[in-house]
Amino acid sequence: MARTVTTTRKSVNTALAWAIGLLIFFPILWTVLTSFKTEAQAVSDPPVWLFFDWTLDNYRTVLDRSDYARFLWNSIFIAGGSTVLGLLIAVPAAWSMAFVPSHRTKDILLWMLSTKMLPAVGVIYPIYLIFIKMGLLDTRTGLVVILMLINLPIIIWMLYTYFKEIPGEILEAARMDGAGLRNEITYVLLPMALPGIASTALLNLILAWNEAFWTLNLTAANAAPLTAFIASYSSPEGLFYAKLSAASTMAIAPILILGWFSQKQLVRGLTFGAVK
Amino acid sequence: MSIKTSLGLASALAIAAASASFAQSPSGTVTIATVNNGDMIRMQGLTADFNAKYPDITLEWVTLEENVLRQRVTQDVATNGGQFDVMTIGTYEVPIWGANGWLVSLDDLPAEWNADDLLPAIRDGLTVDGSLYAAPFYGESSMVMYRTDLMEAAGLDMPDAPTWDFIREAAAAMTEGDVYGICLRGKAGWGENMAFLTAMSNSFGARWFDMDWNAQFDSPEWAETLTFYNDLMTNYGPPGAATNGFNENLTLFQQGRCGMWIDATVAASFVTNPNDSTVADSVGFALAPDNGLGRRGNWLWAWSLAVPAGSQSTEAAKAFIAWATSSDYTALVAENEGWANVPPGTRTSLYENADYLAAAPFAEMTLQSINSADPTSPSIQDVPYTGVQFVAIPEFAGIATEVGQEFANMLAGQQTVEQALANAQALTTDAMEAAGY
Question: pLDDT per residue over A32-47, tens digit each?
Fold first, then answer.
């Protein structure tokens, strides 16, 4: 009897999980479907679902009008660069906070997180003026730095949480065996925290890929990533929904595919240390 | 003169001539910030013609959504960032930016560009202290677009210049089932519902400010304007109108759900395009309504190209602007895309062109609408500002967006007309006092 109840409950849970999953995925699915419609079909009432004349015209138009490869390369460079740079700074920072904390460590962690509480628009003008002075406007380097700084608190917090799960005795043993600080981090800490580091890197990559405030405000013709590519197809005067959907699909496809293939790693990393 | 001297003189002259030629042929990279709409996209597609004429100039396009573009170019021009050499801006920005010294004067564009051919209302809107600071790429006003078949079925005949009372009568007669008699902007924003309502208020004799910059939302004219609008939309408008902007109403009209739509003249080519519109063959046009007070409820806008003061490629930018806003460019578009697709509303010569008049049935009404708008005297009452559907002061965008939210809340049924006007009066008064008026 108990077994039957468990099976029913499992089925309900599974159905519920699928329903929630589909609900979350629906906007993306609708965007992809719309990208294959004509502009008239995209706004038709009642909406058309699957049975319409599928067309690739929107993709052709978008590829003709925009240099997709350049936007894609900028996104890869900016998201990848900010992730690598962020990890290089965050790993030593999280190590020190996790294994050699001071009585102010908690305060520092909270202070770092508090920088995320200020709306980005509140500092746009100082940052913009600094970028002008330093010649960083519309450069990939400038965006790598700013996105790294924005996501750094999250990376440090995540790594700190993962590192705290690793017994300090193991690092002590390595030190007793003569390992220096660099070897201790490189050969002992990093291999053990690899799932956590990988999921942190992936999350940072997604955040940087999707970041649309700074990437739109600090770029023009040279360093604009895929967020600017999408924005160029939005229009308050004229119907461009199908083309906008095609541009959106092309912009999210790379990160969606990456997320799909690394979902196991991502889930493992995100739940790392959740249950003791 | 010896042969040696003659040769030396000839060489010097040749070098001078070459230098002069070099100076006349601008070069460099021109970065253009523009919006995503049909006319701008068409221009990008035709730049091969510009490249052939100016092989030493490279064009870089930055296309952005209108609100993002406005934010980007404003912060760039205000901080002298120099990221853009040509900016697409409207009749709201030009008077303010020109007066601030943020734009380069375009008075020295070549004579063949023919500034005198520009429509007077459009030219006035882009001129500050006698200097032209932006060249109009396309201009628009607003007018009534209506379903001729529904009008006929209702037994009514739309006059060329209707009154608001007729619009209400027609809306009532055409509303049936899922067809709504009238579709108007309701979405909050200074360029959304407030563009429409400010222009509409002009025809009711209202104004934003008196000559001492006191807010006027407590006036009977504004009460009449808003009451009429609210009743019209509540009784004969589509549900959820408080979130409808240009695109939402365009969709409704193209699907045959609106009897009348009062909006930008540029929409005329969309609703008569049989590829997108199910009612393309039964659309008529009329001037924006009035109340017999001497002002119609139509606005005036021109997407224009300007050179920011921080540009490092001023001459090349001017060369591009002269090309993109010339009569030759209009002819180029007509040759490649047909006369119906040329950018409208900027030049008198276009409205004297028989080919254009034949291809664009809405041309005459567009011209009349543009010509009837007077940005220097938008209301029958005296006002201290210019602008038909806006007030050309830097504070307006922020204030009008907040006022627009109050009016959208009213349309959504969350507050009464009186409450919306009282809130608008209070917030406008506070904002103007804080700004030092």
Answer: 999 999 888 888 878 8
Task: Give CA–CA dist A189/A171, Å, rounded.
Answer: 7
CB distance from A236 to chain B under 8 Å? Answer: yes
- Does the structure's ipTM exceed the value 0.85? no
Identify from B65, B74, B257 which residue to disrupt to test chain A contact, counting A C-beta atoms within 10 A and taking the largest count: B65
Claim to verify: residue B84 and residue B121 sit in the same structural domain: yes
Tally of domains in chain B: 2
B424 within 8 A of B403, measured Cβ to Cβ: yes
Q: Which of B44, B64, B84 lies nearest to residue A231, judging by beta carbons?
A: B64
Nearest to B37 among A40, A43, A237 (CB): A237
* Domain match, B427 and B398 both: yes
Cα gap B231→B182, rounded to integer Å: 11
Q: How far apart are CA B435 and CA B58, in angstroms?
A: 42
Q: What is the CATH number of the domain that holds B420?
A: 3.40.190.10
Residues B294 and B255 in one domain: yes
| Whether residues B176 and B197 fall in one domain | yes
Domain that holds residue B388: 142-299+384-434
Please tell me which of A104-113, B67-76, B316-325 the model is most confident about, judged by mean pLDDT.
B316-325
Q: Is B3 inside any structural domain?
A: no
Contacts of A233 in chain B (CB under 8 A): 36
B81:A137 CB<8 A: yes
With contact defined as beta carbons under 8 Å apart, do B388 and B375 qualify? yes
d(CA B140, CA B369): 8
CATH topology of domain A68-232: MetI-like fold (1.10.3720)
Distance CA B314, CA B333 (A): 25
Flag whether the pTM goes above 0.90.
Answer: no
A45 interfaces chain B, CB cutoff of 8 Å: yes
Chain B hits for A221, Cβ within 8 Å: 31, 60-62
CB contact under 8 A, A239 and B41: no
> Per residue in A239-255, pLDDT tens?
788 999 999 999 999 99
